[in-house]
C-alpha cells in the first residue's frame, strides 16, 4: 500500500494540530482563572472571619471571666449565676 502526501492533507493536519494547541491553551487559562477566583474567595472568607474575631475580642477587651471546673461558661448579662465564696486562710 502506497501512501502519498498531498498539500491539502498536510495543511489540514497542521491546522488540526494548531487548533488543538489553541484549545488546550484556552482551557488552561480558563482553569487558572477559576483556581484564582476560588483562592480569592477563600482569602476573602478568612479575612471576614478574622475581622469578626477581632471585633469580638475588642468587644470583650478588658473584661475578666473566671472559668471553673475546666468547662467553658458563657457570660450572662444579668449576672444571676454569680456566687460569692469566702475563703479563710489555713495555718
Task: Give a summary of the structure in a few sentences.
This protein is mainly alpha-helical.
Would you mind describing this structure in some detail?
This protein has one helix and no strands. The chain is mainly alpha-helical and 91 residues long. It has a domain at 29-57.
Key structural traits:
91 residues; mainly alpha; 1 helix; 58% helix
How is this fold's topology laid out?
Blueprint: H1 7-59
Class per helix and strand makeup: mainly alpha
The number of helical runs is: 1
Q: What separation lies between the terminal Cα atoms?
A: 113 Å
Residues in β-strands, percent: under 5%
Low-pLDDT ranges:
none
Net shape: rod-shaped
> If you average the pLDDT, what whole number results?
84
Question: Tell me about the biggest sheet?
Answer: none
Rg measurement, Å: 35 Å
The helix content is 55-70%
H/E order of the elements? H
Total beta-strand segments? 0
Amino acid at each position: 500500500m502506497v501512501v502519498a502526501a498531498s498539500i491539502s492533507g498536510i495543511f489540514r493536519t497542521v491546522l488540526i494540530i494548531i487548533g488543538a494547541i489553541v484549545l488546550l491553551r484556552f482551557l488552561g487559562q480558563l482553569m487558572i482563572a477559576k483556581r484564582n477566583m476560588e483562592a480569592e474567595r477563600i482569602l476573602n472568607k478568612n479575612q471576614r472571619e478574622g475581622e469578626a474575631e477581632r471585633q469580638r475580642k475588642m468587644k470583650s477587651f478588658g473584661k475578666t471571666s473566671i472559668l471553673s471546673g475546666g468547662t467553658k461558661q458563657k457570660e450572662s448579662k444579668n449576672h444571676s449565676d454569680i456566687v460569692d465564696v469566702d475563703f479563710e486562710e489555713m495555718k
